Amino acid sequence: MDSEPRVDGAGVTPDFLDDFDEIVSFEDGTLPAERYLDRELSWLSFNQRVLELAEDPTTPLLERANFLAIFASNLDEFFMVRVAGLKRRIATGLAVPTNVGRGPNEVLADISAKAHELQERHARAFLDLVKPDLDDAGIHVEKWSDLDEADRVRMREIFTEQIFPVLMPLAVDPAHPFPYISGLSLNLSIRVRNPKTMRQEFARLKVPQMLPRFVQLPDDESGRVRFIPLEDLIANHLQDLFPGMEVVEHHVFRVTRNEDVEVDEDESENLIQALERELLRRRFGPPIRLEITDDMDPVTLELLVRELDVTDQEVYKLPAPLDLAGLFEITKMPRADLKYPKHLPTTAVQLQPTEPNMKPDMFASIARQDVLVHHPYESFATSVQAFLEQAAADPNVLAIKQTLYRTSGDSPIIEALIDAAESGKQVLALVEVKARFDEQNNITWARKLEKAGVHVVYGLVGLKTHCKLALVIRQEKGTLKHYTHIGTGNYNPKTSRIYEDMGLFTADDQVGKDLTRLFNELSGYAIEKKFKRLLVAPRYLRRGLLKQIQNEIENAQAGRPSGIKIKINSIVDEQIIDALYKASQAGVPVDVWVRGICTIKPGQPGLSETIRVRSILGRYLEHSRLFWFANDGDPQLFIGSADMMHRNLDRRVEALVRLTQQNHLDEVASLFERAMSDETASWWLESDGTWTRHARDESGRPLVDLQNALMKQINQRKRSSR
Fold first, then answer.
1. Residue 264 has pLDDT above 50, yes or no
2. Which residues are annotated as a binding site for ATP?
3. Which of 531, 486, 432 is nearest to 625 (CA)?
4. Region 10-39: what's the mean pLDDT?
5. Which pLDDT belongs to residue 586?
6. Mean pLDDT throughout 629-636?
7. CA 376 to CA 492: how far, in whole Å?
8. pLDDT(437) > 90
9. Given a cut of 90, is residue 281 above it in pLDDT?
10. DSSP 446-514
11. Residue among 358, 660, 629, 364 nearest 511 (CA)
């Protein structure tokens, strides 16, 4: 055990803090050149794991449909951002970052091949696996050809009254150029013929996005619930749209466009105005994927390829129906028997009143001890939301400072900040308007906050503010006291029900001072060199983690206890990965629990023999980021918002806070032990980049579902605490 004195409450030596100015280097030329997996293929492997849950007959049926929809939605975003970004950099001659020894065009070809394979598998999973089971459960997704005459009469009435008036067919001829095709919209390509001249014409019809993706058929008293895809219903009434013409061919297609946003903040006097202009341009990004039904005729396909300027590689020919993200609508059906058992979050023990019938007091609870909450097993509403609502209503609270990255539009968090400002409190909201695909929402409620008197700032030029921080300043007995929350997830009541996250509440004065200085840096021009219990990016997070890894290497080499455990969404940063390789070479046990992308090659002799990588997917999206270091028997544990990616470490403001209470250290250590156990259902990453699912033991019995086990454990803890 290290005998040097430790900084009070920091758990690290003064030398450790002083050394932060120098970044530990782990690249010495001895590591093999091809030591990373491909980032994009790793992401596609993650989405394949989502698909495997949809294919699994032991997953509740409507949850399988939900995973099919998640797969489709995930893949849309992957094309809009990652593939689009690669293509843009190639087109503009910019360097394309790749650590796998292949050129950018080869990387795009590999992505295309894997994406084609997965999209076909996805379509077949719906048609061959999920749809038949839905049929058996009394939920039918019909085709027009499945309907009898009585159904067709009723559906014609629905079409005439509710759909026909909003349709807008667009002809394509010398007087009507090929129309703009909006991203992710479903469209019908239609060829019609004039019976007098026999001349054929082309038209495009957009399937209205404001209408239900699947139209429910009237009840036929069979006990079945029946739907028909909207595009199928429209396609069988095209004659109403082209009276006097003969409909020769009609097919469904869908275009994905580049929808990434880039704002040059150095050139911009007004970030909001520049971002709004860029959001407008986003709608007209170049096409990067064309999905078509597999019955499309060559003439129509040739026209679309030419007019949209896509390559053969970018064409995805699939069985109907396209856009299975529309299955989200069907999964909302009130069929509890086809969904995961309902789970109601409970209030954390430490936040419950000490006496029966007492009103909860967040400040009194936090003042007694640090409180670690684990969502969604423990309630967001009775912890984070209650904290901010009580702060807004408390006359002793003088100021509230908070970062907002993503939240729901009708969020009680926003309302609490508005209430606080209107009651005369000082309120600062650091709104990240560059949060991808939430830009317009964030702009809208940033303006709403400003109108209420909240001080709204947009962070530092060139950096996204991704950290999840809330600071409350309260006057108590003539002195000011800090109450803080630092979390791993967004201040979003809706996603908190399905995202697994952790958050620390503390009244520790040092953490409060750290956050005060950090907020000053973000809202003003302060430059804070070091923090006591925080690791903050972009200045010190990378350095702090590398220093911790180096410490584990030195302990292993000296024969002292060592170990590294990381829970992360994605890990692609080469410097961090190289450090983990060096730690493995020194004999340090390294466990990586990752949800999404992982470019580590685990289990390779001489490189990564002690590294294990596992992934857990289920009813909740694993979202927390945890960093545990053995530290010669005095574990160091950090939680926060940062993934191990270049953007998080170098281009974002991120914050990790160190946990100090032994019960919190024990809780997280137990969580890692269970997640990495061979008895827990998970996917294991092999050194060649393949993921192997381990869901049953050798006798065929299901392995432990970690999320279900945690539900039971935390509910039992609540019951036994009363």
1. no
2. 74, 499, 595, 623
3. 486
4. 64
5. 97
6. 96
7. 12
8. no
9. no
10. HHHHHHTT-EEE---TT-EE--EEEEEEEEETTEEEEEEEEESS-S-TTGGGTEEEEEEEE--HHHHHH
11. 660
Task: Kindly state the tokens that stand for 562.
Answer: 């060592």
Cα angle 611-615-620, degrees, rounded to a multiple of 5: 150
pLDDT tens figures, 606-619: 999 999 999 999 99
- Which residue of the set 374, 375, 466, 485 is catalytic? 466
* Distance of alpha carbon 373 from alpha carbon 381, whole angstroms: 12
Active site residue 466: yes
> pLDDT digit string (tens) for 445-458?
777 788 888 888 87
- CA 405 – CA 179 distance, rounded (Å): 36
Inter-residue contact 531 to 469 (CB < 8 Å): no
Which residues contribute to the annotated binding site for Mg(2+)?
406, 436
**Average of pLDDT values for 482-498?**
93
Give the Å distances, CA to CA, from 253 to 154, 190, 207, 220, 283: 27, 11, 10, 32, 18
Whose CA is closest to 107, among 95, 119, 118? 95
H or E stretch including 328?
Answer: helix 327-331
d(CA 300, CA 241): 19
Backbone torsions φ then ψ of 197, nearest 5 degrees: -100, -15
Residues 6+ apart with CB under 8 A from 652: 463, 464, 465, 466, 537, 538, 642
- Residue 133, classified by CB atoms within 10 Å of its CB into exposed (0-12), middle (13-18) or buried (19+), is middle
Backbone phi, psi, residue 410, to 5° = -105, 35
Length of the chain: 722
Distance CA 721, CA 142 (A): 51
Q: How many Å apart are CA 125 and CA 604, to the nearest integer?
A: 34
Residue 22 DSSP one-character state: S
Give the residue ranges of the annotated binding site.
Answer: 74, 406, 436, 499, 595, 623
Does 277 have pLDDT greater than 80? no
What does the block give as tokens for 384? 């984070």
319, 115 contact by CB (below 8 A):
no
Q: What percent of the chain has pLDDT over 90?
A: 67
Decide if 397 contacts 361 (C-beta within 8 A): no
Separation of first and last alpha carbons in the chain: 39
* Residue 526: pLDDT band with limits 50, 70, 90: low
Joined together, the tokens standing for residue 287 give 């096409």
Domains of the chain: 22-39+535-721 (3.30.870.10), 141-338 (3.30.1840.10), 349-532 (3.30.870.10)
Phi, psi of 267 (to 5 degrees): -95, -5
266, 271, 275, 276 alpha-carbon torsion, rounded to 10°:
-140
Report how far Cα 105 is from the mean position of its chain's Cα atoms. Answer: 27
**Averaged confidence pLDDT in the chain:** 88
- The 10 Å CB-count burial string (b at 16+, else e) for 642-664 is bbbbbbbbeebbbbbbbbbeeeb
- CA dist 49 and 301 (Å) reads 32
Q: What's the alpha-carbon Rg for the chain, to the nearest Å? A: 28
d(CA 471, CA 399): 8
